[in-house]
Structure formats: C-alpha cells, structure tokens
Amino acid sequence: SQELRVGSVATLSRNFQENLLSPVLRDADLHLVLESAGLEELLERLRVHRLDVVLSNTPVSGTDRMPLRCRRIARQSVCLVGRPGPGRKRYRFPDDLGDSALLLPGKNSDIRTQFDLLCERLQLQPNIAAEVDDMAMLRLLTRDSGKLAVVPEVVVQDELAQGVLEKRCELPDVYENFYAITARRHFQPAPLKAILAAA
C-alpha cells in the first residue's frame, strides 16, 4: 500500500479539500493521512518530510533552509450567499449591499482584504454583523442566522445544491486562491501526482 500525507491550514474549506482528494479517495491501496494546523507548523513538518504536501490559501516562498515549490491549483469566485425566501427580489450589487447584514471572513483573510478594497473602491459602507476566521463556522452561521455571507462558492456547495442557501451575486475581482506546497525533492508519491494533475 502507499501512503499520502496531506497537511492543510486550519481555515481551509473542507469541501475544497474533499473535492481535491476525490481522485484518490476510493483507492483501496492508499493510506491517507490528513493533518490540520497553522501554516508555519505544517511547513516545518513538510521540511522534515513528515508531510508530502501542504494545502494553503496563502502562497509561500522557499528559502535555502526550506526549499519549497508553491503552485496555485485552484481559483474560486467569492459570492454573497444567504437563505432563500419566497418572493425575494433579485439582488443588485452594489446597490443592495448597504441594506444587508454581512458575515465576513476575519481581517487576516486574503478574501477580506480584497472585499475591503472593493468596498473602498466603490465607496461602500458594509454593515458587518460578524467576522469569522473559520470557514466551517462561517458556513453554519450563514445557514442559521438569515444574514448574508462573503464566501467562496465551494465552501457552501452542498447547501447551494440542496437549496438551503442561494447565491445572490458573485463579487467582482474577489477570489480565493488555493496552493499546493511541496518540498523540492525528486520523489513525489504517485497519488500526489494524480491529485496535482487533476487540479
């Protein structure tokens, strides 16, 4: 059997991770190890070869001490999503934004930075109800609060498919990028090659 050891930053979308790993999930000969932690801790595990790949939404650069390859493997649009309602009029962005109570990613998020820049450019004053670092928690709050959230579509893909949430609009020029970080070495496990090829 083969082993694939994947580290992912704690704030990364679980849906994205599952979608990415789907090419190898049914491989009966594969032993999959998934670890979640902060980026610095994961990079150290990668450096000492305790991980084969680190998944992140933040790019990194290698150093002499830690030679790395960082490759963007996906780019997701970021949307405003909320619960559906009967007779709801079509959402007009940016005109309707001021009337919406928003759930936003935390201030350390690249999505949040892009959203803030978009609001500044359009001279918008968003009504911020909550700031949430964890995407899983942001998804739950969106589902249960009745407020609108700024999230990548992949985070709420199941709720959108089931009609629990609906997409009001895509935000222009706001994206989440996903990166695969590997150590610079000649050998990569075959399952990792399959995942990166599919990505």
Task: Tell me what you see in this structure.
- With 199 residues, this protein is α/β, with parallel strands linked by helices.
- Helices cover 28% and strands 35% of the residues.
- The protein contains 6 helices and 8 strands.
- The protein has helices spanning 14-21, 39-47, 110-122, 135-145, 157-162, 190-198; strands spanning 2-9, 30-37, 53-56, 68-82, 101-105, 127-132, 148-152, 166-183.
- Strands 2-1-3-8-4-7-5-6 form an 8-stranded mixed beta sheet.
- α1 (14-21) links the parallel β1 and β2.
- The longest helix has 13 residues, at 110-122.
- It is elongated, with a radius of gyration of 19 Å.
- The model has no long low-confidence stretch (mean pLDDT 92).
Summarize this entry quickly.
The protein is an alpha/beta fold and 199 residues long. 28% of the residues lie in helices and 35% in strands.
- Helix and strand string, N-terminal first? EHEHEEEHEHEHEH
Compute the average pLDDT: 92
- What would you call the structural class? alpha/beta
Distance between the termini: 23 Å
| Number of E strands | 8
The number of helical segments is 6
Strand coverage percent: 25-35%
Shape: elongated
Low-confidence stretches: none
Tell me roughly what share of residues is in helical segments: 25-40%
Strand order of the biggest β-sheet: 2-1-3-8-4-7-5-6
Biggest beta-sheet profile: 8 strands, mixed
Rg (CA only): 19 Å
